[in-house]
Amino acid sequence: xxxxxxxxxxxxxxxxxxxxxxxxxxxxxxxxxxxxxxxxxxxxxxxxxxxxxxxxxxxxxxxxxxxxxxxxxxxxxxxxxxxxxxxxxxxxxxxxxxxxxxxxxxxxxxxxxxxxxxxxxxxxxxxxxxxxxxxxxxxxxxxxxxxxxxxxxxxxxxxxxxxxxxxxxxxxxxxxxxxxxxxxxxxxxxxxxxxxxxxxxxxxxxxxxxxxxxxxxxxxxxxxxxxxxxxxxxxxxxxxxxxxxxxxxxxxxxxxxxxxxxxxxxxxxxxxxxxxxxxxxxxxxxxxxxxxxxxxxxxxxxxxxxxxxxxxxxxxxxxxxxxxxxxxxxxxxxxxxxxxxxxxxxxxxxxxxxxxxxxxxxxxxxxxxxxxxxxxxxxxxxxxxxxxxxxxxxxxxxxxxxxxxxxxxxxxxxxxxxxxxxxxxxxxxxxxxxxxxxxxxxxxxxxxxxxxxxxxxxxxxxxxxxxxxxxxxxxxxxxxxxxxxxxxxxxxxxxxxxxxxxxxxx
Length: 506
Prior knowledge:
Helix content is 67%, strand content 6%. The chain is mainly alpha-helical and 506 residues long. Among the domains are: 113 residues, no CATH class; 172 residues. A four-stranded antiparallel β-sheet has the order 2-3-1-6. Helix 4 packs across helix 7, helix 8 packs antiparallel against helix 11 and helix 10 runs antiparallel to helix 11. The longest helix is centred in the C-terminal third of the chain and has 89 residues. It is rod-shaped and about 210 Å long. It starts with 8 loop residues before the first helix and ends in a 24-residue tail after the last helix. The N terminus and C terminus are likely disordered.
């Protein structure tokens, strides 16, 4: 393999041939490039002007709580899907319609299909104002439209607002950027601010509407709950009155009656036992011809008088016996008087014993009657206990209704108090200002675009023309006609030569 140290002819002649190509095709390269620049200038002059204004919102992570009560609408969760949802809310047609209403209320006309302002239209209006006065600068009033056209215009306004609106978030914070593009910088700023204000007002409206709906529903529900509470309380009270379940200190009268009868039976049983014991003692002593020393006997006035007389007779007999008048005629009369007194005392004792027996019989009958009353009271208590179960059920139902009614009433009061303290969960930290510079069109961008279009057209035309000229020269070359080998030379298809001037290296 042979390696030549001398550079090839194609490498030596590439730059001069390229310069010759530029000189030879200078018109084909220059004219399309200039035409492209003219196209860029024309596009720049006819492109609509647009200004961009931006308002900045931030979702509040911390909220001010005035009252220690739970709000009707829960706060927004601080999550990425929630933030994306809020961006969609701002960018929705509903929000656009609210913005239209807000702007029209402020006297700002919402743009529809009016022609955008361009560089050409600006200079045209200036020339018109210069020659014809300011009459052309005033816009004609729009003709009256019917309802169908008005609805179409409203939809068109909404579409234009949404198409020129851009709501973004950087993904690292809770900041929302509302950007609007319009031909007028002041209009763009007003629309961007209107979207932010409408969103804040929408948050307040959501809270207030939810609070009002809840308060209205609670008010209607309270009427039903109040009626149910009154019905249940009346039913429980009527049942208690019919069943005789009156209470004192938490105890029913039936239970108090049973307890009282039991106490009386116990007391009467004790008294009866004591009376029987005294009677048995008196009978036992009486059978032994001894005067019982019982309280009833000792306290009897008749027995006391008889015993006093007996004591006098006994004392008189003792005096006669001590005096030795054993055969006195007074002794038999005193003995008979003493026996008579003793018989009277015995009769009084028997009468007292009979009275004790009668008292025992009365006590027994009273106890039997009290036991019968106890059985009746126990039956009434059993019925009262059964009624008490049903009354307790009615009372529980009334208490449950009362608890529900009180909770609803408390919530109703809280909801009414919260109606006037609704606050948005976001704040506007930066109002949109009218832009001082246009966002589009940019002269450099249009010139680069026109230069690129012209350059591509010039290059394509040059390559096409050179390809045609090279094909024609190959057909007319003598070497191709005789098929004789030719000396190595530069490829004319790559670096063709103008036939009128000849090959510079021939």
